[in-house]
């Protein structure tokens, strides 16, 4: 079996990292890790509960630890929206794979996450969400090897576009 570099999907909440990741790992027939899911499984708590009982900093420590434990090859990794806020996380993703930024507009994310209560940093006023979005855009752009716009595409189409970039690498 030919081994491939990891593919790390980054982007804001609701950009489709988890949805695209599942589709992508089927297309590439490789392993799959969703860092948010692993944090929840390891702690036996939802992300909402971790934020409420231990705070965001504790979540960030769990998240970085999970990233460090991901195998160094053959995985599609759907990351959490804030993983790029820690430079060491970015360094590790750069060293072990290709970073794919799923670029999505704020208005599209707002539409997708309208009823969502499972993301503590989305569950705050619109001004704060917008500020977080603006603050992170440059971080996502600066560390990405590949950027795929998602606004008017299904997540299957986004996954297929990622494959076309990877095959062309
Ligand atoms: N390309 C798309 N078209 C339409 N809906 C989408 C698309 N991508 C994701 N969604 C929807 O948006 C919601 C959030 O998607 P998803 O959980 O994959 O985002 P995420 O980037 O993993 O978010 P988080 O950073 O919080 O983990 C889901 O309801 C999903 O079905
Ligand atoms: O953007 C963020 O900071 C987050 C995104 C989600 O994937 C989760 O990692 C958590 O809700 C925090
Ligand atoms: Mg996700």
From TrEMBL:
Cofactor(s) essential for the protein: Mg(2+)
The record's free-text note on cofactor binding? Binds 1 Mg(2+) ion per subunit.
Gene Ontology cellular component list: cytosol
Name of the molecule in the record: Shikimate kinase
InterPro entries assigned: P-loop_NTPase, Shikimate/glucono_kinase, Shikimate_kinase/TSH1, Shikimate_kinase_CS
Q: Which family does it belong to?
A: Belongs to the shikimate kinase family.
Q: What is its main location?
A: cytoplasm
